[in-house]
Amino acid sequence: MKLSFTKMHGAGNDFVVIDATRAPFRPTPALLHKLTDRRFGVGCDQVLVIEAPTAPDIDFNYRIFNADGSEVGQCGNGSRALARFVRERGLSDKDSIRVRTSTSTLELRQLPDGRVRVNMGVPRLAPAQVPFTGAAAQAPLYRLELDGQPLEFGAVSMGNPHAVLEVPDVDAAPVGELGPRLQRHRAFPEQVNVGFLQIQGRDHVRLRVYERGAGETLACGSGACAAVVAGRLWDRLGEKVDVEVRGGMLTIEWAGEGQPVYMTGPAETVFTGELEWPN
Ligand SMILES: N[C@@H](CCC[C@H](N)C(=O)O)C(=O)O
């Protein structure tokens, strides 16, 4: 059997997108591995699956699988890719669509310049919602010890968990060393995406993210939203912030607590292909 797929990216965070609106997609661990593996398969950070809607108020269901096969509830860059995919495939001719993941409802709007603006929903800030169980939590800057080293960070859920650490220089940040250790700290029962944030001004930051289930990616959309939310709660950022990531630029807007976060950025198709499966 041949499985059709589309390779896409959003600011360098790359995806294999599967259209399951007409035929079901059965994501076995072996198939997901074949789609994500960069040497023996297609290769991507996340597999995105678009399905027919299961509720009248949405246009599509949106499922997300990390490179390690874990299914998660949010992928911001992926949602922009999805908006583009839906348009290119003629699955919808609306300028704005609503999609539902296992944790969030997102509104995706095509802009005339080709970028996509996403209403990412209201960030969840209570430690239990992240979830983060650090007992001595003191919002909006939390503390814990990692192997005797004190760490301070923000903790935000954008429909998936994020910890945000401020660093003086993202290029020198210990992303590959500290990222996986904090990610698996017992205070994060669902593990956590770890963002390293360099604040350059109230409207410009640089960011690297060590993602759950994928390692460091060239961009993390939900991570960019979480970083701006944390920076604003620390009173260090304005309402509209350009977030420079290794694969490009995202613009994040947040008016403050109780308000949704908006993310604007690029999405591109790289190629389409067919995979013989099982092979
Ligand atoms: N790349 C994503 C986030 C993908 C999911 C994440 N790794 C998780 O496990 O929560 C984005 O652009 O938001």
From TrEMBL:
<feature type="binding site">
    <location>
        <begin position="76"/>
        <end position="77"/>
    </location>
    <ligand>
        <name>substrate</name>
    </ligand>
</feature>
<comment type="subunit">
    <text>Homodimer.</text>
</comment>
<feature type="binding site">
    <location>
        <position position="13"/>
    </location>
    <ligand>
        <name>substrate</name>
    </ligand>
</feature>
<feature type="active site">
    <location>
        <position position="75"/>
    </location>
</feature>
<comment type="pathway">
    <text>Amino-acid biosynthesis; L-lysine biosynthesis via DAP pathway; DL-2,6-diaminopimelate from LL-2,6-diaminopimelate: step 1/1.</text>
</comment>
<keyword id="KW-0028">Amino-acid biosynthesis</keyword>
<dbReference type="GO" id="GO:0008837">
    <property type="term" value="F:diaminopimelate epimerase activity"/>
</dbReference>
<feature type="site" description="Important for dimerization">
    <location>
        <position position="271"/>
    </location>
</feature>
<feature type="site" description="Could be important to modulate the pK values of the two catalytic cysteine residues">
    <location>
        <position position="162"/>
    </location>
</feature>
<keyword id="KW-0963">Cytoplasm</keyword>
<feature type="active site" description="Proton donor">
    <location>
        <position position="75"/>
    </location>
</feature>
<feature type="site" description="Could be important to modulate the pK values of the two catalytic cysteine residues">
    <location>
        <position position="211"/>
    </location>
</feature>
<keyword id="KW-0413">Isomerase</keyword>
<feature type="binding site">
    <location>
        <position position="193"/>
    </location>
    <ligand>
        <name>substrate</name>
    </ligand>
</feature>
<protein>
    <recommendedName>
        <fullName>Diaminopimelate epimerase</fullName>
        <ecNumber>5.1.1.7</ecNumber>
    </recommendedName>
</protein>
<dbReference type="InterPro" id="IPR018510">
    <property type="entry name" value="DAP_epimerase_AS"/>
</dbReference>
<dbReference type="GO" id="GO:0005829">
    <property type="term" value="C:cytosol"/>
</dbReference>
<feature type="binding site">
    <location>
        <begin position="211"/>
        <end position="212"/>
    </location>
    <ligand>
        <name>substrate</name>
    </ligand>
</feature>
<dbReference type="GO" id="GO:0009089">
    <property type="term" value="P:lysine biosynthetic process via diaminopimelate"/>
</dbReference>
<feature type="binding site">
    <location>
        <begin position="221"/>
        <end position="222"/>
    </location>
    <ligand>
        <name>substrate</name>
    </ligand>
</feature>
<comment type="similarity">
    <text>Belongs to the diaminopimelate epimerase family.</text>
</comment>
<keyword id="KW-0457">Lysine biosynthesis</keyword>
<dbReference type="Pfam" id="PF01678">
    <property type="entry name" value="DAP_epimerase"/>
</dbReference>
<feature type="binding site">
    <location>
        <position position="46"/>
    </location>
    <ligand>
        <name>substrate</name>
    </ligand>
</feature>
<feature type="binding site">
    <location>
        <position position="66"/>
    </location>
    <ligand>
        <name>substrate</name>
    </ligand>
</feature>
<dbReference type="InterPro" id="IPR001653">
    <property type="entry name" value="DAP_epimerase_DapF"/>
</dbReference>
<feature type="active site" description="Proton acceptor">
    <location>
        <position position="220"/>
    </location>
</feature>
<feature type="binding site">
    <location>
        <position position="160"/>
    </location>
    <ligand>
        <name>substrate</name>
    </ligand>
</feature>
<comment type="function">
    <text>Catalyzes the stereoinversion of LL-2,6-diaminopimelate (L,L-DAP) to meso-diaminopimelate (meso-DAP), a precursor of L-lysine and an essential component of the bacterial peptidoglycan.</text>
</comment>
